[in-house]
Design goal:
Elements (H helix, E strand, L loop, with lengths): L1 E7 L4 H12 L4 E7 L4 E6 L6 H10 L3 E4 L1
Antiparallel strand pairs: 1-3, 1-4, 2-3
The structure holds copper (II) ion.
Length: about 70
């Protein structure tokens, strides 16, 4: 399953790397591509293991605003 997210608050490549890391750390996520401008993430995941809500929550815990897009 592929889900896009709008991610706000990333200001540099370090932020994008952090977001990539927290998404990829989730069980069930096989791929994450994060873009800085516009701020977003494309996540390939297994819906049996993880939900878009929990992916967005993980991004929020890292200090950024995420919304399924
Ligand atoms: Cu940064």
């Amino acid at each position: 399953m592929l889900q896009k997210f709008a991610v706000q608050g990333m200001t540099c490549g370090g932020c994008a790397s952090s977001v990539t890391r927290v998404i990829k750390a989730l069980p069930g996520v096989s791929e994450a591509t994060v873009t800085l401008s516009p701020g977003g993430a494309e996540v390939e995941y297994d819906p049996a293991q993880v939900s878009p809500e929990s992916i967005a929550a993980a991004i929020s815990r890292a200090g950024f605003e995420a919304q399924a897009a």
